[in-house]
Design a protein that fits this description.
Helix content is 36%, strand content 14%. It contains 14 helices and 13 strands. It is globular, with a radius of gyration of 21 Å. The structure holds D-gluconic acid. D-gluconic acid (GCO) binds next to loops.
Length: 461
């Protein structure tokens, strides 16, 4: 059977599958200082010259603040049934405190949620996608217990206000990246350079904030809601022989072991450093880097309903004679994205199986996609054949994971439109929709129509 096309796999996808796309507030909204919005650490960080590529900022971004109806009209045209976006905490609570609310900010998100519902697009809200109120950072940020209290109150407020129209919520996006890039390497906001111990402490604070938020949201919700968080980290996959031959079981187990081994080169970019605590109530293993285990993990794991995974690529592993993992170097000319990330579709199958076997939670792919050097061709279209091939390959592997028994509930493509790629600025284009930034014109790429047709095929099953 031909399995080189997702059409051959689409029937494996479960009923009521959420076909969506994702974004985040700072990367798309713009309107960084209008209508009462407070400053976030990303407003501060990106407006310091030199902190981002060509000192680009999210001050305007895709101006989603003024174009959100046009964007949601395009989502309707795309045919997605869910849209994952994040709320800018300081747009609702300008200084982070729950006693100072900004009504225009609330109205913006009310309008997004209500307009999505007009087209039967299910909103999925992320509470924290990195834009911490600057006022709170100035008061010690996540190290200050008051910030965690305010996050808990913010989460409770969002749950109470939106839970009559929103069912799915992510508390925090990628705590691993927040701690590593924002607080250890300092290439993301707030640009700190903490040592390993303080970085791991920061990660613990995020786990504490997550746990408090989950409980507060459940207690404030108007109806039953589903809560999770979005995790990222190194995942591994076994050497996959050509054709339909299965990998060696020894390679599969070596890849599984490597995926969850925290060592010197993976201590900030792995799922288990957050998920073991937040899901299993187990202390993540930091012994390889000389950090003592957390002693309160049983308090960090209130039950959640799903695990969000942001998966882009992984590492191939084989087993040596003793069964120990050996990482396969990429051959010369290995396929890569515009950001030079390797293209490794098999990780969407085996990486997902390893995660599911360890955490036993329903899974949402909260992010998957690639940056391409997209341009508008002379015919006025954007022929992003690399993205179509990437989507086809990764979704086939997602189909294999589902066939292997992984409970996958949805796929949110990263991203709906091109947007601000953090310290890399606007060169990196991840969208299904091209943004011409000077004019803010939206141009659906060829991949938009490919994804649209796939979703239509699924609906016709
Ligand atoms: C992340 C963030 C997104 C990125 C995307 C591409 O995973 O880093 O969640 O905001 O833009 O993943 O890097």
């Amino acid at each position: 059977m031909g399995d080189l096309n997702i059409s051959d796999w689409i029937k494996n996808f479960p009923a009521n599958f959420k076909w969506g796309a994702a974004s985040s507030s700072y990367q798309i909204e713009g309107g960084y200082n209008i209508d009462g919005k407070g400053a976030s650490i990303w407003d501060t960080f990106s407006n310091i010259s030199g902190n981002t590529s060509r000192s680009e900022t999210g001050n305007i971004a895709c101006d989603h603040y003024h174009h959100f109806r046009e964007d949601i009209d395009l989502m309707h045209k795309l045919g997605i049934n869910s849209y994952r976006f994040s709320i800018s905490w300081p747009r609702i609570f300008p200084d982070g405190r729950p006693d100072h609310i900004n009504s225009p900010g609330v109205k913006f998100y009310d309008d997004i949620v209500d307009y999505c519902h007009q087209f039967d697009i299910e909103p999925i809200i992320t509470l924290f996608h990195w834009d911490l109120p600057q006022v709170l950072e100035d008061q010690g940020g996540w190290f200050n217990p008051q910030t965690i209290l305010y996050f808990e109150r913010y989460a409770a407020w969002v749950s109470q206000h939106f839970s009559n129209r929103v069912t799915y919520f992510c508390t925090i996006n990628e705590p691993q990246i927040i701690s590593n890039l924002g607080y250890h390497l300092g290439i993301h906001a707030p640009g700190r350079h903490l040592d390993k111990e303080r970085t791991i402490t920061l990660l613990h604070q995020l786990a504490l904030a997550h746990s408090k938020a989950v409980t507060a949201m459940r207690n404030s919700a108007q109806q039953d809601i589903k809560i999770g968080f979005a995790s990222t980290g190194r995942l591994c996959y076994p050497h996959c022989p050509k054709g339909n031959a299965l990998p060696l079981s020894s390679d599969i187990e070596a890849a599984r072991s490597a995926a969850f081994t925290t060592n010197e080169d993976s201590w900030t970019f792995c799922h288990q450093i957050f998920c073991d605590a937040a899901i299993l109530g187990k202390a993540p293993d930091f012994s390889s880097i000389g950090i003592a285990p957390w002693d309160d993990c049983e308090t960090l794991c209130p039950a959640i309903d799903f695990l969000g995974l942001n998966i882009y690529n992984g590492s191939e592993v084989t087993a040596d004679a003793s069964g120990n993992p050996l990482f396969t170097p990429h051959y010369t000319g290995f396929p890569r994205t515009a950001l030079k990330w390797p293209v490794t579709p098999a990780v969407m199958n085996y990486g997902l199986q390893f995660i599911y076997d360890r955490y036993h939670l329903p899974i949402f792919i909260c992010e998957n996609g690639l940056s391409c050097n997209d341009v508008v061709s002379l015919d006025g279209k954007v022929h992003d054949t690399n993205r179509i091939d990437f989507l086809n390959r990764y979704l086939i592997e997602l189909g294999r994971a589902i066939q292997a028994g992984v409970d996958v509930r949805g796929y949110m493509h990263w991203s709906f439109t091109d947007n601000f790629e953090w310290h890399s600025g606007y060169d990196e284009r991840f969208g299904l929709v091209y943004i011409d930034y000077p004019s803010q014109k939206r141009i659906p790429k060829d991949s938009f129509y490919w994804y649209k047709n796939l979703i239509r095929e699924y609906k016709m099953l």
